[in-house]
Design a protein that fits this description.
Number of helices: 6
Number of strands: 10
Distance between the termini: 25 Å
Order of helices and strands: HEEHEEHEEEHEEHHE
Helix content: 10-25%
Number of domains: 2
Strand content: 15-25%
Largest sheet: 6 strands, mixed
Shape: elongated
Oligomer: single chain
Strand order of the largest sheet: 4-3-7-1-2-10
Amino acid sequence: MPEYASGLDSSVLVLNRYFMAVHVISARRAFTLVCKRVAEIVHVTEDRYDSFSFDSWREVSQYKELFDDANDPLEWIRTVSFDIRVPRVIRLLTYDKLPRERVQFNRRNLFARDENRCQYCGRRFPTSELSLDHVVPKTQGGRTSWLNVVCACTNCNKRKGGRTPLQANMRLFKQPVEPKRSPVIHLKLRSGRYRSWKTFLDSAYWSVELKQE
């Protein structure tokens, strides 16, 4: 079945059965859950949101005038017999666990927090060209934590070596902080493609982690 991998690999917000945000997964995984009938698609409009099974969502997708992105290949999956819009939100029908209370400390969230920007020269780089640097080196008692680890490009990392920024005569682009919400979600919300997520990410949920899968 022909498909646009870019559409299937886009992100979908997952809600528990109480409509609380708990995960972010790929559209491919989201379609699988909906087809297995363990989840339903939630479509947000300006003043309401509606729930759909896979079959009812496929039927609605045929009325492309209902959507403002009918010609955007990133929003649609094309098959031999029908086109179906990529959902942005799904709800698990029986899952009632709550999100974690803290943002997970890992490489992905660190790169997202610093927006792929070297925290010494201030330039942005692909993830493959960035490393993680201890502001206060571990040899000087520095901890591996949100407040002491930053992104650094290869040149700046070599220049700094096993020294503090002050010892290396370098200055941090900004002070590292522990994020109160998922940095990955923060970046996603900058795109209009994920604007419907904001309905479920109000102030009551900004302080919890959204696990990335």
